[in-house]
């Protein structure tokens, strides 16, 4: 029962509106500089994206093609993106949440439905990405990349390929050289995967069992990192690390001694998606941008820079063999067959996982 | 005095108004909102119903979380003790330095504030990590030593880098590094006001240097010590960046848990309750300290 009847959004939006207003206007400079395009919108676009997640010339190419200037701001985690938009959209036109947060944002009425007629390039998508369980019918999101969690490792410091979660979670073979994620849901869901369970509907007693396993393993773990596993691996701080394939593929270009494997027990797949947040000031430009990114040439330019797997068949056809046949970017189908998408299973579960992580850390 | 204040109401409003408005809008109001959240529960992903429930507080004082709060107090206490031990001689040295040198020394104490805390913390990581400057330096010394040992026929093993980062040591070290200026400055302020003739009198009357320090300097510097301890202890309890970047899982402090409630766990009511438990405990500690200090004062009179 609500006494004050106040929601977080209404309370904060009143306070936050002023501050947010000038932060974005300050960022974009004088508004009159932008001429109106044919669609009646100002020829600009605010793009909220992950770091190192566009091609070198993507934004210039888009401007050359449409005359729309893109201002890109960066976020580091989905939580950051979510909390920034929770109090109302401060002026972003296109955002890139991961699948679980697409669900969260749809549930919270924070996404604008896409006008699929304005995105003809969606036919370029691979059949597997034409639809998605987390967004049935692709009404709110277009896939940008997909990623799979696995083990990044240093070949000269491991005995063969560490192709099981065991080496990270349940063994002292690489004691003192192990890096794990500090993200509660990933840790517990991958723990369940190691124990032979799906990442969905993990029973409470199994969560406890997983917690005990990590508590036993903790003395052997060098660091619980915040998604900077590729840097730790490159710097030699750890030799086996839980990380996303694209991140490891990026550092593999710098150090040929590094490699990536999806463990034989299977793993979690994620998909980062292009979405238009509710209240986007320039929705038509946003559709144009999404359509542009799904184009074959623009896509190829992006993926050859960011080294993440593409859901785009037309872009893939333009890519060199060093990308298409890279086992870090496209792990073997046998391993991928055991991977699954995680899903948002309610706040209560997110809080259970968080408390479990606190318990693991404090033990 | 009272009269002139009343007559200059306009001036008072002009001078006092903006800070009071600032305090109300940007400190008290947000604090009140967080306080209200601590009695609420999540209804949906974006809605909190403020229902007056105490469940968040009951959850917050469970052993798991209370243990982490206690641990934060212990880390902060150690930080304060080290800061006091290191800061007192520094403050004394600055006080008794020649006028010209004094200005430079004070500048040196304040110099770290010119750089952002985040950058200083990353710099500390570069110093402490396995391939960091400390371990590289020790490694070079070790290689030199094994060369010498080789000459006399003793074999030393390979150099094992010291584990300096991602543990409790790194957190307390980082906190001492960050908080030290906050200890030195109030100590210096107190010592600088100290009447030098009292020291001379004590020495002339036959007290040793040490007795003078213990019986004259420390009691006179007590106000400075108390304020130094408070401005070191309280921010250290709520330290977030230092344990996050320098610590390992074992050295997680309460602010890291609170941060997770507002971000990944998306449990604002619980995060708010944890913040306020911490605040109540800090108030309690200050109140106890004040009562003890007062009773001691009345006793000595």
Shape of chain B: globular
Level of helix content of chain A? 25-40%
- Strand-pairing-aware structural class of chain B: mainly alpha
Compute the number of helices of chain A: 15
Low-pLDDT residue spans of chain A: 1-23, 25-31
The chain-level mean pLDDT of chain B equals: 89
Query: Mean of the pLDDT scores of chain A?
Result: 89
The description of the largest β-sheet of chain A is:
7 strands, mixed
What is the radius of gyration of chain A?
A: 21 Å
Q: Between the first and last Cα atoms of chain B, what is the distance in angstroms?
A: 32 Å
Q: Helix content range of the residues of chain B, please?
A: over 70%
How many runs of DSSP E, i.e. beta strands of chain B? 2
β-sheet strand percentage of chain A: 15-25%
Descriptive notes:
The complex is a heterodimer of chains A (363) and B (301). Helix content of chain A is 39%, strand content 15%. Chain A has 15 helices and 10 strands. Chain A has helices at residues 8-28, 58-66, 78-86, 99-107, 166-169, 184-194, 204-217, 229-235, 245-252, 283-293, 296-306, 313-317, 321-324, 333-336, 347-362, and strands at residues 44-50, 69-75, 94-95, 142-154, 178-181, 221-225, 240-244, 258-261, 268-274, 340-341. In chain A, strands 4, 5, 6, 7, 8, 9 and 10 form a 7-stranded mixed sheet that branches. Mean pLDDT of chain A is 89; it is low at 1-23 and 25-31. In chain B, 76% of the residues lie in helices and 2% in strands. Chain B has 13 helices and 2 strands; from the N terminus they run ααββααααααααααα. In chain B, β1 (40-42) and β2 (48-50) form a beta hairpin. The interface between A and B is large, with 43 and 39 residues.
């Amino acid at each position: 029962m609500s006494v004050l009847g106040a929601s977080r959004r209404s309370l904060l939006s009143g306070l936050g509106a002023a501050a947010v207003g000038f932060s974005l206007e300050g960022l974009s400079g004088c508004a009159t500089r932008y001429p109106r395009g044919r669609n009646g919108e100002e020829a600009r676009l605010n793009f909220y994206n992950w770091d190192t997640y566009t091609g070198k010339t993507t934004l210039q190419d888009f401007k050359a093609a449409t005359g729309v200037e893109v201002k890109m701001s960066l976020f580091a985690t989905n939580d950051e993106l979510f909390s920034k938009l929770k109090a109302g959209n401060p002026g972003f036109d296109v955002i890139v949440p991961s699948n679980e947060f697409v669900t969260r944002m749809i549930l919270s009425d924070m996404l604008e439905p896409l006008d699929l007629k304005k995105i003809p390039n969606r036919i370029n998508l691979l059949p597997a990405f034409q639809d998605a369980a987390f967004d049935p019918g692709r009404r709110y999101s277009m896939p940008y990349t997909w990623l799979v969690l696995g083990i990044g490792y240093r070949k000269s410091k491991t005995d063969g390929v560490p192709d099981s979660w065991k080496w990270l979670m349940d063994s002292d073979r690489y004691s003192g050289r192990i890096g794990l994620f500090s993200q509660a849901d990933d840790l517990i869901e991958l723990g369940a995967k190691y124990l032979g369970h799906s990442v969905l509907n993990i029973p409470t007693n199994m969560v406890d069992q997983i917690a005990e396993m990590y508590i036993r393993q903790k003395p052997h773990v060098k660091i619980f990192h915040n998604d900077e596993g590729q840097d730790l691996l490159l710097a030699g701080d750890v030799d086996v690390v839980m990380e996303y394939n694209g991140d490891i593929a990026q550092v593999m270009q710098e150090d040929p001694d590094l490699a990536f494997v999806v463990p034989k027990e299977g793993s979690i797949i994620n998909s980062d998606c292009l979405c238009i947040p509710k209240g986007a000031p320039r929705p038509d430009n946003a559709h144009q941008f999404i359509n542009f990114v799904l184009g074959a040439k623009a896509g190829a330019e992006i993926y050859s820079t960011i080294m993440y797997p593409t859901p785009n068949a037309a872009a893939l056809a333009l890519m060199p063999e060093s990308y298409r046949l890279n086992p870090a970017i496209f792990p073997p189908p046998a391993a991928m067959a055991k991977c699954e998408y995680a899903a948002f299973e309610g706040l209560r579960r997110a809080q259970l996982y968080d408390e479990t992580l606190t318990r693991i850390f404090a033990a | 005095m009272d009269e002139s204040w009343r007559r200059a109401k306009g001036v008072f409003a002009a001078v006092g108004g903006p800070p009071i408005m600032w305090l109300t809008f940007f400190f008290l109001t947000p604090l009140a909102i967080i306080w209200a959240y601590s009695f609420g529960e999540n209804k949906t992903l974006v809605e909190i119903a403020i229902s007056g429930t105490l469940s968040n507080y009951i959850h917050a004082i469970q052993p798991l979380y209370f243990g982490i709060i206690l641990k934060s107090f212990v880390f902060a206490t150690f930080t304060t003790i080290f800061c006091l031990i290191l800061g007192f001689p520094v403050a004394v040295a600055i006080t008794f330095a020649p006028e010209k040198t004094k200005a430079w020394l004070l500048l040196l104490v304040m110099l770290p504030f010119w750089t952002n805390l985040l950058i200083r913390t990353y710099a500390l990581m570069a110093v402490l990590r396995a391939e960091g400057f400390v371990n590289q330096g020790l490694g070079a010394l070790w290689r030199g030593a094994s060369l010498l040992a080789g000459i006399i026929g003793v074999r030393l093993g390979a150099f094992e880098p010291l584990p300096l980062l991602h543990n409790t040591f790194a957190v307390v070290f980082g906190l001492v590094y960050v908080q030290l200026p906050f200890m030195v400055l109030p100590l210096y302020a107190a010592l600088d006001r100290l009447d030098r003739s009292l020291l001379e009198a004590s020495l002339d009357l036959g007290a040793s240097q040490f007795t003078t320090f213990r019986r004259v300097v420390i009691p006179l510097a007590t106000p400075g010590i108390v304020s130094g301890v408070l401005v070191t202890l309280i921010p250290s309890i709520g330290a977030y960046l230092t344990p996050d970047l320098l610590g390992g899982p074992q050295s997680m402090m309460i602010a890291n848990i609170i941060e997770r409630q507002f971000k990944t766990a998306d449990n604002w009511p619980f995060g708010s309750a944890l913040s306020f438990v911490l605040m109540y405990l800090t108030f309690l500690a200050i109140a106890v300290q004040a009562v003890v200090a007062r009773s001691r004062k009345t006793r000595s009179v």
